[in-house]
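Quick log. Single chain, no ligands specified.
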Amino acid sequence: MEDTLSKTAEHHRDYTGAKMGMWLFLFTEMLLFGGMFILYSVYRFEFAAEFHAAAKELDRTIGAVNTLILLTSSLTMALSIVALKKGNKHLSLVFQVVTMLLGIAFLGNKYMEWGAKIHHGIYPNSEHLLSLGKGQILFYGLYFVMTGLHALHVVIGIGVFVFIFYFTLSGSVASDNSVKLENSGLYWHLVDIIWVYLFPLFYLIT
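-> predicted structure:
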């Protein structure tokens, strides 16, 4: 009886520690992007007109579609956790695959958007970009850095999901041991939340 209680307590401590560790990691990510948001705010206040002019060149439709894609992926991620906790391993795996596919779709749209900008000569240190005003240069510099860093986080998230899918398939992630899936879900939700802020800041400037 004592051994059972001891194992239960140890399992609880491991679960709690894993969750706390993930939250601490997410806090450092928020600090990283938070600093960039502050920098963006300062430059936008100083070069409001030029930021507004530069934002008109971004494709709001693609930005909106990507927002919908990521919000949907957050839903499928949450559904995969719920399914696993209810013991439906197959359904959880399906939702994990859908989440990964949505992440890939997001990256595909971002690739096309960046490709269009590069085709028109708008990329860091390009001759065309350097011929624009200082505010527009800063806007596109922040745009490429912040959306590029966010895209990198999406790539990392998809990579993590590949391992989580394998762990779920092999049974090491299960209804009674789902912390890895839950933590990967927390990471993905943060990535989605960051985009929810990036979208209006770059695409919906008024």
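The radius of gyration is 20 Å.
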